[in-house]
Every structure is written in C-alpha cells, then in structure tokens.
Fold:
Amino acid sequence: MSSTAPRRAFWPLLLQATAYELRKQVAFRVGFLVREVSHGIVEPLVMLCVYAALYRSAGSGTVLRGWTFPELVQYVAGLLVVRKVLFHNRALDLSTQIFEGRVTKYLVMPMDYFVLGVARFVQYTVLQLGVASLTWGIGALVAPEHWLFPASLEALGGALLLVLLGSWCSFQVYYILNALAFWLDVVWSLLVMAWFVISFTGGALLPVSQMPPAVYAVLQYGFPYWSMSAPIEVLMGRLDSADVLRGCAVLGVTALALELVRRQVWRRGLARYGGAGM
Amino acid sequence: MGTGRRSFFLRVAGQYARIGLVRKSQFRWEFVNQVVMDCLYYLSFLLTFEFIYGFREGLTLGGWDRDDIRVFLGMAFVTDAFMMTWLGQTWHFGDDLKAGNLDAFRLRPGPVWFTYSFQRFSPEGLTNGLVAGAILVHALAAHPEVALAHWLLVLPALAVACTAQIALVVLFQGLEFWVVNADLARFFNNVFTQIADRPLDVYPRGMKRVFTWLLPLGALAWFPAGLVVGRHGAVFALVYTVVVLLFARLAVAVFERGMRRYESALG
Structure:
C-alpha cells in the first residue's frame, strides 16, 4: 500500500506524534501514577531487603564477590532510577494495532509508520527521564548518606548515553516481537519472556558483576548488561570511560543489527497483511 | 459450604477447564510460548538464589538456608502456577470493568467473584504447575530435615496457599470498582507477587507483620514452605489458616460490595 501525496517530513511528524502520545499517557491520572510513576520501584526495594538479610548473615563489612553492602544499596538506588528510563515490554501496543487492522489507515498516509513507534519511544523517554530525575531527587533528599551520587559529570554523561542507547535496543526488540503479530495469534508471552531475559541478564535481580565470573564474562556481550548494570557501575565509579566506549560499541552494533531485523520483519509482515487485521 | 454448592463450584470449574482446553488447542504456538515463559521465570529465580548462596558457605536469608529456600521457591512456583491456571482473567479485569463485560456474569446463577475470576482456565498454567510441582518435590526430597511427616503437610499447606491466592485476586479486583481506569488489580498482583516471592523474614519487622496478618502474602509461599520444613509450629499453623479463611471471606465481601456499585460500562 502506498500514497502518491508528498511524504511528510520525519522530524515535525515525530514532534507532533510525541505530543499526542504524552497527552494520552497523562489522560487518566490514577492510571498514570500506577503505570508510569510506580513502575520499576518495588523490585529493587525487595532486592534491597534480600541483600540486607544476606549481609546480616555474612557479618557487617563483608565483601561478597567484590561488593560491600553500602555499595549494593547504591546499586539498588541506581536501579530505581535506571529501570525507569529503560523501555519496557508494556510500553508498545503495535501487536494490538496489527491484530485489529488499525495499521491500515496509516499505511495509505504519506508517512513512514515507524515514526509513530519512535514517537512512543521519545514520549516514554521524556516522561521517564522526568520521573527518574524526581525519584533520584527524592532519594538524595531523604537518604543522602546511602544514595547514589554520580562519581563525576563525565560518569553521568557516560551512564546516560549507555542507558538511552540500551533503551533504544530494548525498544527495537519489543518492536520486532510486536511485529511478529503478522504471523502469530498472540505475542504477549514473547514480550514477557524478553522482559524476563533482559531484566535478569541486565542485572535487575543482582549486579551482573556479582554473578559467577563465567556468567559475567558471557553477559558482557549482551546489550542488557550495558543498559542497566553497567551504567550504574559507571555512576558509582567502578567502571571508567574505556568501559563506556566498549559499552557504546556493543550497544551500537546491537542497535544496527536490530534495525536490520526490524526492517526485514516489517517488510515481510506487510506482505502477509490483508489490511483488515490478522 | 453445602454439598450442592460445592458441586456447583466444581461443575462450573470443570466446564471452564473444558473450554480452556478447546480454546488453547487452537493456539499451539502460544501454548509452547507460555510454558517457556514461566520456565524462564522459574529459572531466573532459581539462578538468582543459587548465585547468592554461592557467594560463600553458610549464608542464610532471614534464617532460610539454601535447602529451605529451594523448598520456598518450589512453593512459590506452584502457587503462581495455580494462579496462572485458574485466575488469569484477573489481568483483564480493568478492561472488562471499563467495557461493561461483567454484565453477563451478573446474569449467571453463581457468585460473580467465582464465575468471573475462574473463567479462563489455562492448560499451559497447568503444564507449568507440573514443572513447578517437580521443582518442589525435588527440593523436598533433597532437604535433609524433611521427613515423612512433613510430606503429609504439603497438600494442606498448598490448600492454604491457593485459598490465599484466590482471596488476594478477588480483593484486588474488588478494589478496582472504586478506582476505575487505574489497572489496580494488575498493579497489585505484580507488586505483591514480587514481595511474596521472597521469605517474609527478609523484610523489616513491621512490614513482615503487615504481610503476615493484615494482607497475608505470607500464605502464598512463606507459610506453606515454612510449615513443611518445620519452621512453623502447629498452633501457628492453625491460627494462620483461620486468618487466611477470614481474609478470604473479607475479600469476597469487598468484591460483592464493589459489584453493587457496578453500573455496566464504567469507562
């Protein structure tokens, strides 16, 4: 399907679509608070309780595989902030649009459909950067002695770059999985699976560098580690600028590969698409 | 509960199971996906705790050693599989409430909390239940202090856990009648599952009390696992069972009160 009208420019369209996405998110205030503000808060706090119990059993001042308890508290503080920014499995509804045939009306418009997905990503990132900053600010005021303060401005910039690149990779993964709706009847379980894998291999349950050395060595080749666990270690000053560059390389290559896969999946999916849903 | 009423619940549940099997036979790829999905969930937890206990010999979490925690995780997985098998419709409660989809259930000859909550029988949840059961049996068999008498406690312990799981789902759905559009049932289920997936002894004392007595999340895995590994005495077990039953009654009452507020599409 195509249109003979001149194509709309990417950036103004992205800006407009992002504004609509933002309005949609804040339309229901309680739902907004529950879904967006509280997202990703509970698991790190639960993890903190587990670690507190563990270090109580090990004795105060103990170092367990390179981490002391105060360092883990800082890691959890970092998780509270970083996980908010990382694009998650419920933030995209592309599969529903495909199933219900709602994609059709956009395909005949003079625009690239992907811009709507990118607008969702931008809306999510802008909103969550705000919520994450607020979370960090509250933590810094309430518990400054335990909270995570960036080791340097350079570390803050490096960590932010890694998180944003990692979030883009997550977005691409979920976009591709959503686009599998062209072939499958249900895709939500794939999205949840991806979320489990990204969370675990990214260090949501325990820092990747605290896992057994062989596991740590393998996970350093994956984008989840550089999206979650590594940026926090950069903020803490445990990783330096050389590590940031290495992370950017892994994330850059991953993003490129995912972009190629996304284009292929979308092109082949559209070839199967009948226009009235799947 | 009289025999006739009990047989009504069983007959309805049986029909829901039949429909669930027919429905899922048309989505075979999805069946595989969901089984794999829950296995990944189990794996991530098992690995996390194996890594944690692997830091050093002799570590415990609030007094739970490695053998105890394996039993705890087995219990948590079985309770979760029960929820996924029978109570999966709760993920759609917010949308159904907004769209007025509860209307049909008001007309059915049975309590809405039951006919609504149990309608989506999931064969993949049942399959995961078998995997979770195998993990639990393996953990119990490998536990050096679990004797035959403890094995006899497994079924009653799981009955308490499943009752608490039903009560929590019904309560969270019930609360959503007061806050439409908030997705509260989904949110609470997510949050409280994460809390219940760790032994309550790791939490601060006040929090542990709340999740033991006020909102008995402890009944999902902490109580049943503690019972079979000998961490809870008989008196506590009896008292706690009564607490869970009272909580279940309260949850149903909240839901029924919410239903009286329901005016078809609330969106």
The radius of gyration of chain A is 20 Å. Chain A has one domain: 10-272. The longest helix of chain A spans residues 241-272.
